[in-house]
Amino acid sequence: MFKLFRYLKAYRLQVMLAIILVFLQTLSELYLPTLMSDIVDKGVVNGDISYIWKIGAFMLLVAVGGMLCSVAASFFTAKSATGFGRTIRSKVFSHVESLSQQEFDKIGTASLITRTTNDIFQVQQVLTIMLRMMVMAPLMCIGGMIMALSRDAQLSWVFVVSIPILILVILFVQSRAIPLFRKMQKKLDALNRVMRENLTGIRVIRAFSRIAFEKKRFEQANLDVTNTAIRVNKIMAVMMPAMMLILNFSMISIIWFGGIRIDHGDMQVGDLMAFIQYATQIMFSFVMMSMMFILIPRASVSATRINEVLKIEANILDPESPETPEQTIRGTIEFQNVSFYYENAEKPALANISFKAGPGEVTAIIGGTGSGKSTLLNLIPRFFDVSSGRILIDGIDVRAMSQVELRKKIGFVPQKAVLFTGTIADNIRYGNEHADHEEIQHAAEVAQAASFISEMAEGYQSTISQGGTNISGGQKQRLSIARALLRKAEFYLLDDSFSALDFKTDAALRNALKTEIRDACLLIVAQRVSTVMDADRIIVLDEGEIAGIGTHHELLNTCQVYKEIVSSQLAEEEIV
Ligand SMILES: Nc1ncnc2c1ncn2[C@@H]1O[C@H](COP(=O)(O)OP(=O)(O)OP(=O)(O)O)[C@@H](O)[C@H]1O
């Protein structure tokens, strides 16, 4: 957990102020019983009213001062702890943003969400408590002991018995509770996972009438969290009464033996009253320390989980001195013997892929499901890095360019259209934040989206709901194409982006694209032969390897895999 405290640096001043204020508050609390004892022994016993008024007023002053320190300390601890939480959340968020898909998958989305929210909140909460107790508990314990000893050394043997018992109780509770805290965070991860899957897959769940099953799955995860929380709380619930019992027994012993000592004239009443208060403070300081001993390991479970995320090193990095392609070469891409393995995969997803494409050319990639089409496209913007071979963009290895520069050249349309909450115009503008309304409209027209947008009540200002659930799959695809077009990129990578379009729209879109992006290099992944037939070059993938490259006609004569795909989709008379 202490590793995370480096993020507290920015709040140094607030932390220092909080510590000083808690220190002053504790001193005031330690001083009050002495003043009270003086009032009793010197004022009440001697009947000195003016002394009682004087010390009483002073006590009030000390108490008010302590209270003000406490309020101000709360303010500064809250300020630094919430700021600390905010800083870590941003750090984790921006770190996760820099990770590649493979690193992202190591932890999983659900766990990443728990770590960024709940775990950080746990650490933040403990910091709030720690900033107060870290100073108050030891100071109160040591100060209280000194003060108690100064009042009556002989009565202090009560502590020799009660404190070791207290420590044993704390150790017992700690040994039981900490493993459960660890379990608790894991169970929360599981609950989040079920929740996420249910929310994103709600339509599938309904379509397959799996609501009862999913309910049961959620109930199970929910019950798991509840049961663990109950077990933790049961243990924690034992702690307080056990401590109070020890405290009360100590008080009885102090009053009992103190009474005997007063009876023998070895101690004054005021001293006994002060002693009782110091004993209470000492015991409470142990309660505070025990809370810290429980909360710190609990937070350190969360801190470890946060550090695990921060520790993952992004393996897709910018080179130290990035190269920029010459302005004269634009829109050329070359795969040189590229192979790629997913982590822990035995077989390569792509093997020995070589091809070249230039500006103004349309390269289509076709193949069965799982043949590596999406993987091939994903290697270009460096969502993954090649395992061997090279990908050259305008003559430069993609790994030698800065990621921002590389991605600026690319208009990417993912297989699963992703839209963000906001208006249609906002979503298209995502491709180029400086685009004006005319450009947005033009991109939508080319992407064959303009007609359905104009039919919507508020046109370009219509709101897209979270995840784009209020428009159809084909409409989503067209909007994501419009978004990519707005980039005016050198390369357009369209991953199965026509799959949800009807044949007429598909053809119209391809025609419009041809004229719109005349100088760009277009790579289209498609399942339909009709989509790829007109391409300058068709790459046929089969189990990660190139089964054939050529035009439609060339491949019909040379590539068996292509012929099979074609004959499965087109009628005899269409195959020309
Ligand atoms: N993140 C991943 N981790 C491990 N293996 C993966 C991952 N993504 C894809 N694969 C595997 O790599 C191979 C190629 O996948 P890819 O998604 O590139 O195929 P595809 O041709 O685009 O398929 P589809 O047409 O169904 O989209 C498949 O065998 C797939 O199981």
From TrEMBL:
Bilayer-spanning residue ranges: 52-76, 129-149, 155-173, 235-258, 278-296
A GO cellular component entry from the record: plasma membrane
PROSITE patterns to which the protein is assigned, alphabetical: ABC_TM1F, ABC_TRANSPORTER_1, ABC_TRANSPORTER_2
Subcellular location field: Cell membrane
Protein's membrane topology: Multi-pass membrane protein
Keyword flag Transcription regulation: no
Keywords: ATP-binding, Cell membrane, Membrane, Nucleotide-binding, Transmembrane, Transmembrane helix, Transport
PANTHER family membership: ATP-BINDING CASSETTE SUB-FAMILY B MEMBER 10, MITOCHONDRIAL, ATP-DEPENDENT PERMEASE MDL1, MITOCHONDRIAL
Listed InterPro entries: AAA+_ATPase, ABC1_TM_dom, ABC1_TM_sf, ABC_transporter-like_ATP-bd, ABC_transporter-like_CS, P-loop_NTPase, Type_1_exporter
Gene source species: Heyndrickxia ginsengihumi
Pfam families: ABC_membrane (PF00664), ABC_tran (PF00005)
GO molecular function (one): ABC-type oligopeptide transporter activity
Segments forming domain ABC transmembrane type-1: 17-298
Stated name of the protein: ABC transporter ATP-binding protein
